Amino acid sequence: MTVLILTSEEDVTADMVVVHLNASGVPVFRLDPADLTGGVALSGEFVHGAFRGHLSSAGRLVSIGGLRSVWLRRPGAAAQRAASPSAWLTEEAGQALYGMLRGSEARWMNHPDAARRARHKPWQLRLAQQCGLPVPATLITTFPQAARDFAERYPDLVVKPVSGAHPQDPPRAVPTSRVAPDTDFSAVAFGPTLLQRRVAKRADIRLTAVGEELLAARRATGAESEVDVRFAATDVPWCPVEVAPRVAEAVRAYLRGAELAYGAFDFVEDADGTWWFLECNQSGQFGFVEVDTGQPISRTIAEWLARPVEGREGQVNGASAQVV
Amino acid sequence: MQPFALNYARPAAELEATTPYVYDSGMQLNVLRDGRIAACDHALMRELGTTTSTAGSKTHFDD
User: Fold this and answer.
1) Of A75, A230, A255, B43, whose CA is between 20 and 30 Å from A186?
2) Can you tell me the distance from the alpha carbon of B25 to that of B42, in angstroms, rounded to the nearest whole number?
3) Pairwise CB contact (< 8 Å): B62 & A284
4) In what residue span(s) does the MvdD-like pre-ATP grasp domain sit (chain A) (predicted)?
């Protein structure tokens, strides 16, 4: 049975997993939904009470019934690169592809519904609280006065996008940034603003969760002024770090609550060694951690994807075969 | 009328205009010009930053 990977061609991080799947002899079928109606085609029929569906790409053909897992990695929008792209065609192609895949019995990393919900940072913060993870005091508001009041209670603040998205017109990045004490909060009225108490950190933590496996890495803070590790100019490497049992239990509770098979958790570690939850990226990058630490993240993902679907007969190369 | 958070925006850093590898649809992998699999060259991956948490931010929410 086959592992289906939905991602862009340039996703070299996904390649790290494909290498392991290839080495273990697990069939891989990789496509970018953006190529639908161009290099990617689909077909499915619902006849006589049964469903038979197929996908093709680059000369390969796979039965949807023969999928053991689907890795929703970094796919483009459906039919984005079609000869005549349109919002309507994207909706049509997305409904056709994901609608058929949802009907398969394959395991998902991560299911589209869970993935969509898990992107909401306010929801993340609430779930983290409920799971017992320490969350820095946070305010999301369009009331300037609420922001001023919050800044009085927590004078050392950072601001970050609610969605994590970066503006594209023109292309800009919005790193997590410190807010000066005398800041004018009037512009809070023009867009939801996420303000958070700055944790005086001594390290950043990236905890990559794959199923039940937790692989954590720590990077010591390079400078007092460093706020957003993604944009910090530092040569300090990531190093493997143990996960305290209490944190591990809370993280697993979060994954269960979010129905995620994969999550990349960002924490900051304070002077007491407490890990403060910042966010969980349901499709977060992992290659940079593996490259630094040597942790077997890509192999662990490959092993999760390669697990057979329990108690199910599958179609392999057109022949019925018992899944073992 | 600019939202508060955009007061902290900065120009997006351009990723490498060209990467030294190209997708091979037969292998379903990106390969270097000498035929090696790009993902197996960790030194190169570190140098290019294509697996880092800001790579892909242009099109994806999750880093």
Assistant:
1) A230
2) 22
3) yes
4) 2-112
Decide: helix, strand or coil at residue B15. Answer: coil
Of the candidate ranges A24-28, A235-239, B12-16, B47-51, the one whose mean pLDDT is the lowest = B12-16
B42 interfacial to chain A (CB closer than 8 Å): yes
**Rounded to two decimals, what is the model's pTM?**
0.91
In angstroms and rounded to an integer, the radius of gyration of the C-alpha atoms of chain B is 16
Mark whether A229 and A124 lie in a shared domain.
yes
Measured CA to CA, the distance from residue B34 to residue B52 in angstroms comes to: 24
Domain span at A95: 2-106+309-322
Which whole-number Å values give the CA distances from A142 to A160, A175, A191, A246, B4, in the listed order?
14, 20, 6, 35, 10
Beta bridge partners of A281: A264
Determine the Cα–Cα distance for residues A318 and A112; give it in Å rounded to an integer. Answer: 28
* ipTM exceeding 0.95, yes/no: no
B47 at the A interface (CB within 8 A)? no
Residue contact A19–B39, C-beta within 8 A = yes
d(CA A39, CA B33): 23
